[in-house]
TrEMBL record:
Name this protein carries in UniProt: Endonuclease V
Domain of life the protein comes from: Bacteria
Reactions mediated catalytically: Endonucleolytic cleavage at apurinic or apyrimidinic sites to products with a 5'-phosphate
Cofactor requirements of the protein: Mg(2+)
Binding-site residues, Mg(2+): D37, D107
Keywords: Cytoplasm, DNA damage, DNA repair, Endonuclease, Hydrolase, Magnesium, Metal-binding, Nuclease
Subcellular location per the Swiss-Prot or TrEMBL entry: Cytoplasm
EC number: 3.1.21.7
Amino acid sequence: MIEMQEQFKLEQEKWLSKIDLHNKFQINDLKFVAGVDLAYWSKYGKEYGVCCIIIIDYVTKSIVEKVNYYGEIEVPYISGFLAFRELPLILKAVEKLSIKPDLYMFDGNGYLHARHMGIATHASFYLNKPTIGVAKSYLKIDGAEFKEPKNEVGAFEFIQTQNEIYGLVLRTRKDVKPIYVSCGNWIDLETAKKITLHFVNEKSRLPITTRYADLETHEIRRIYKLR
């Protein structure tokens, strides 16, 4: 396990200098945005996972495509190295898309990671598209602090150390828990926040991109578990 962690760490460090937290696109040019999520289950002593990708029209906010891919999980869960466990299924699901999204949003973190290499950032190098990480809970990073945002839509606080901003905690709806937004790659934090808020509706604190992907993973997992 230690040898695997060291190998994974070297892979993360290889990409670190290639992260670019500036927009590689114009927000007005966005047409299709993908939401990505995964779910897991065990059967006959083996662990399986399914990746669901939902493509949303940026303007109409309607679903234009859904795909999924499932398979056996080969990599054990190791904190800080989740991408190595999830990426094989994600890339297989991406291959099934007929519509190529302009941007991917992940149910997870991006730059908000001890080595700035959460799934949204790591995956960007294989997808070659801008990415955003949207997490439901906070992944604690030593030395990083934040205040609770005000109880109003759009209120936020940076998650930062003395020298660096990792992401932000964002209130998407009044009287509900905030979410945690971070850049993946080829996007700045202000734009990541703006796009996230664009996809939030009255039914959830989460953007519909990752919310619909999350709902889809639960449904597809239920189907596959019965097989």
